[in-house]
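Hi V.,

You were right to ask for the full record rather than a summary. Here it is.
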Amino acid sequence: MSITATEISTARTATAAEAVTTTATAAPAETAGPRPSFLPLIVDVAVPVGSYYLLKNGFGMSTMAALGWSSVVPAVRTVWSVLKERRVNALAGLILFVNVVGLALSLVAGDPRLMLAKDSGVSSAIGIGVLVSVKLGRPMMTQGMKPFLVKGDAARAAAWDRLAAGSEPFRKAERTFSLVWGTVLLGECVARVVGAYTLPIDTMVWLGTVVMIASMVLAFLLSGRFAVVPMEKMLERELAAGARTDS
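Predicted structure:
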């Protein structure tokens, strides 16, 4: 695990469309609050990432030991989802894969430039995973964007589901969000690898962090401009249309 693993901004939606509709009519809006939506983000991402840094920096464990122990939760979550839910938990599976990549790269030592480039391998694993999810028709970054646009509101969640089922522009913007993040992460990987082997080591030690931060800012700006803003406008129009229909 590396700091680049925190670039994943992902969370799973806890309710299906039917459940959201039922809740909207049978219970107050507070019951559809955001807390259930963010629980998977905490379990699948925050716990393994946080435990890695706690074990490594707080308890002085080696990188390999910290990676190994922080892999327990995503490993259990992945196996549980396959056996009990009969589907793959994309978030937990990706974090587990990143940890495995980190463990493999941690076995390589002795070359300072290779060690500088190691974190880029993790970024590339995440970027490839996100891009593959778009190719498979299930853009992974949607899981992190949806709670922020739905805002725990049952009517907005129902509007999202209607648009996702029947609006190609909405689905295109959804894919664009993940495409931007996957592409930026791969671009960051390339930039850091090139820098690790062409720039002085002392320069790349601090420049790697600058590249990471700049990449995140770029991804936020581009995904917001070309995906989040258009989707939010489409949601508002769908909500207004639904309100007119109800009246």
